[in-house]
Amino acid sequence: MLFLLAELRALLGTPLSDERAQLAHDLAEDAIRGEVGERLSDPPQRGIKVVALSVAARILTNPQGLRSEQAGGMLQSYADSQTGVVLSEDERRRLRRAVGMASGAGMLDIAPSDTGMPVSVWRPV
């Protein structure tokens, strides 16, 4: 397990059934394993739990992926632009660092310093 269900309940501060908590854990774990594969150890490496809890909390607090909703005169906007089972770039970096994966070529600037031309690397989304 990447985190205890009690930890997820404590983070959310709301009642949560075992089934919903376990589903959120399993979906977060699946997303993380999709990113780092079988490099994930048991117990998980340091830094994995924070990402897993963040993803699980997003799944439970905004499962429909809403950016905002309005009921009468009350407008609720969600500050986090990530919704559902999606890993942010920061979370991907944290996961890769935690399991010892290289950052990839996207982190390197191979242009000579005297070119003066901006360099950007295309990365599929």
Protein architecture, described:
The chain is mostly helical. Helices cover 41% and strands 6% of the residues. The chain contains four helices and two strands. It has helices spanning 5-12, 18-36, 48-61, 89-98, and strands at 68-71, 74-77. The chain has a two-stranded antiparallel sheet with strand order 1-2. β1 (68-71) and β2 form a beta hairpin. It is flat and about 50 Å long.
How are the SSEs ordered, and which strands pair?
Layout: H1 5-12, H2 18-36, H3 48-61, E1 68-71, E2 74-77, H4 89-98
Antiparallel strand pairs: 1-2
Helix pairs in contact: 1-3, 2-3
Summarize this structure as a short list of keywords or feature phrases.
125 residues; mainly alpha; flat
Can you describe this structure in just a few lines?
With 125 residues, the protein is mainly alpha-helical. It contains four helices and two strands, in the order αααββα.
Sheet with most strands: 2 strands, antiparallel
How many alpha or pi helices?
Answer: 4
Largest sheet: spatial strand order: 1-2
Distance between the termini: 28 Å
Low-confidence stretches: none
Overall mean confidence score, pLDDT? 81
Note the overall shape: flat
Number of strands: 2
